[in-house]
Amino acid sequence: MEVLSVFGLDIVLADECLASRQSWTTLVQPGVWSGLQMRGTMVCGVEGLGETTTGPDSLATFQTVRPLEFFHHSCQPGPLSAVFVRVTEGGLADLLGEDGAAALCPARLLPDALQRTTRPAVSALAWQMLGLSGQGAGQRLYLAAKALEFLAAVIEGRAGEEPSTSAVRSASCLTPRDHARVMQARDLILSNLKETPSVPDLARAVGLNATKLTRGFDRVFGMPVYAFIKNARLTYARELIESGTMTVSEAAYAAGYHPATLSTAFHRHFGIKPSQARRSR
């Protein structure tokens, strides 16, 4: 799980593979929270506020004025993908106006916070945010912008309005079957970043043609396949370098790069050299 704090927002990106009945807790800070679970099924709850079961397309919006400890357990093995955005108490008026939290209609009790959504705008923005993680300047600005779009889409959805951006509306062009195949392609890429397949091979593996796969990545993740692979490789290399478990050269090869090529791409992407990332850990 990755947490990014920027411009009065906390952005939580979760993309895990869980065992059946796996249990864990999270400490939720005060503020207004809105998030979408895209994959997986789990039970979550808070003592005194009830519990609920969440699954794919579960949208939750709630507000708390005190820290809360959430307990969770998975209902079945497999991937869990979710994105949550927190607006801090200090950022409510600046971001949402004088009405503040009321615009998002947050719930006070956990079961009341949950709704099922089939709105393509909300789902597309969540996948785009999850598709580009990392702490570089470009990633931080991108995620902050997408988080604001996500909140706007939630507010528009509650008001019965249509999404205001054509880029978000384009995500609705994917059928559920094609969307599932795009997600399958994403998982294949992330399963072996050292040797990623070509776009035609990837398309054949998931049962799409190359054009539809490329368009699908652009609509779901906001970037073409090659850009997704590049970002995933560089983010993985940085994680390995900062963890201290590998040398820069070892991390380069593990992420599918030659060390010299990694140095150039890393600097362009993150604004620092790989050796600087290692020293900053």
UniProtKB/TrEMBL annotation:
<dbReference type="InterPro" id="IPR053142">
    <property type="entry name" value="PchR_regulatory_protein"/>
</dbReference>
<dbReference type="InterPro" id="IPR009057">
    <property type="entry name" value="Homeodomain-like_sf"/>
</dbReference>
<dbReference type="InterPro" id="IPR018060">
    <property type="entry name" value="HTH_AraC"/>
</dbReference>
<keyword id="KW-0804">Transcription</keyword>
<dbReference type="Pfam" id="PF12833">
    <property type="entry name" value="HTH_18"/>
</dbReference>
<protein>
    <recommendedName>
        <fullName>HTH araC/xylS-type domain-containing protein</fullName>
    </recommendedName>
</protein>
<dbReference type="GO" id="GO:0003700">
    <property type="term" value="F:DNA-binding transcription factor activity"/>
</dbReference>
<dbReference type="GO" id="GO:0043565">
    <property type="term" value="F:sequence-specific DNA binding"/>
</dbReference>
<feature type="domain" description="HTH araC/xylS-type">
    <location>
        <begin position="183"/>
        <end position="280"/>
    </location>
</feature>
<keyword id="KW-0805">Transcription regulation</keyword>
